[in-house]
Structures are given as C-alpha cells and as structure tokens.
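sry for the spam today, last one i promise. struct tokens for design, 82 residues
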C-alpha cells in the first residue's frame, strides 16, 4: 500500500495515484464523494455516471444510412399503406 499514498497540498488538493485511477476506470470530470468513517479514516466513493439525455440529440444522423426525411414524407408513406 505504500505506493498508493498521496500528499495534501496547501490548497487542500491531492493527486490520486495512476494505478488506482486505472483500476477504478476513472475519467476526468468524474465525481468522487468523501465520507468520514472515523477520526483517522475516510472513504472515497465513486459516484455513478448518469448520461445526459440531451447529449443523444443529433446522434441518429451519424448512423442513418439513407438521407434524412421530413415528417410529411414519413406520414405520406404510412398513409399509403392504409
């Protein structure tokens, strides 16, 4: 465990050892939560990543094989089948 230590800076910052970041598959910007366990012990909890639902907007055209169609064209095709 000696290789997994870090030092607190004057500004209250630490750097997490790369071995631990890789093992936990942590990415920049990921949220971590500190929990006090006792006077000399803390727990670091990796918070679950919840994808932004708005990030999916505009994702479809990247995989669409045919050109984009207007809603009116879709409706015309659907009504023709009736």
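last one done:
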């Amino acid at each position: 465990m000696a290789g997994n230590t870090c030092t607190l800076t004057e500004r209250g910052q630490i750097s997490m050892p790369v071995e631990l970041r890789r093992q936990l598959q942590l990415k920049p910007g990921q949220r971590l939560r500190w929990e006090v366990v006792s006077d000399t012990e803390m727990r670091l909890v990796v918070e679950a990543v919840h994808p932004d639902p708005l990030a999916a907007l505009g994702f479809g055209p990247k995989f669409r094989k045919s050109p984009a169609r207007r809603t009116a064209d879709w409706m015309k095709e659907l009504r023709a089948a009736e």
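The CA atoms of residues 20 and 42 lie 16 Å apart. ok im logging off now
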